[in-house]
Amino acid sequence: MTTIAVVGPGAIGGTVAAWLSHSPHVSSVTLCARTRLDRLVVEAPNGRLIEASPRVVIDPSGITAPVDWVLVSTKAYDVAAASAWLAPLVGPETHVAVLQNGVEHIERFAPFVARERIVPVVVDIPAERSAPGRIQHRRDGTIVVPAGEAGEAFAALFAESVIVASTTDDFTTVAWTKLALNCAGAVNALTGLPGGVVTKAGVADLMRGMVRECVLVGRAVGAELGDHIPEWVVERAETSPPDSVNSLLGDRLAGRPMEWDARNGVIARLGARHGIPTPLNRMAATLLSTME
User: Of 38, 68, 191, which is closest to residue 199 (Cα–Cα)?
Assistant: First the structure.
């Protein structure tokens, strides 16, 4: 049986923790949070309600033993705070799964954990938190990790959930494909409007332009990204619920810091390194950074 700690019980962390709490492969789930939660309540797809009451710890000093898996699901900019939990949670056999946006999962946590212990995770779980511990899980969702022993073990944890977990031999391409989706989401945060903004005049073309920049930079670092990606991103936006709120917009509306660097800034930074112009993503990162 596997012991798990989830650092950051927001929309993604809370959803994952709730499902894993019901897994027959998991003996215990600990939530590492800033404030106490009475329980997790997830409105799952098809009207299903998932409830869980994992142990909640609000200070690293409350951790008494390492676990098998640490799942870090904080925002990408919150690595310093997340790292404070690692010392008491990480033992000789512990792996750290990083469930964050962007393409720099390992780079963010390499200063705190040996690289071979880090499992980068691409998460596509449409979920929104309405209150602490209360989450709406809109669609089943997927999780992808690099192939290998650790990746296979991580994916197996979700066998009894609606979350489809799999491994890949080309994680770079998977991560950059997700970044293509995320970079276009900056439009929502910049306009302050939910998913339906894609139907406004010129918005779809703007999204296509941002994604094209992402595709070119991704190819430069080794991702296999097809020319269809910009249209695919727009089609996905057009078929999403018009009232859906991505995490970048959610953070702006709540007055929280935003992941502009992990979603758009990284494209501009790596684009500059490879001599690829990225004016749209650079503009998005610059404007979002001024809003914080």
Answer: 191
Of 169, 192, 225, the one marking the end of a domain is: 169
Q: pLDDT-based confidence at 42, cuts 50/70/90?
A: confident
In this prediction the pTM is 0.91
Residue 104's nearest CA partner among 181, 187, 172 is 172
Partner residues linked to 56 by β-bridges: 31
pLDDT value at 114 more than 90? yes
Q: Which of 108, 117, 137, 178 is catalytic?
A: 178
Q: Mention every residue, 6+ apart, whose C-beta is less than 8 A from residue 179.
A: 101, 102, 103, 214, 218, 263, 266, 267
Look at the block and give the residue holding tokens 């595709």.
215
178 is catalytic: yes
Contact (CB, 8 A) for 8 and 34: no
| 225-271 residue pLDDT tens | 999 999 999 999 999 889 988 889 989 999 999 999 999 999 999 99
Number of domains composing the chain: 2
Q: What is the pLDDT of residues 164-195, one digit of tens each?
A: 999 999 999 999 999 999 999 999 999 999 99
List the CATH number of the domain containing 228. Answer: 1.10.1040.10
What CATH number does residue 112 fall under?
3.40.50.720
Which of these, 55, 60, 107, lies nearest to 86 by C-alpha position?
60
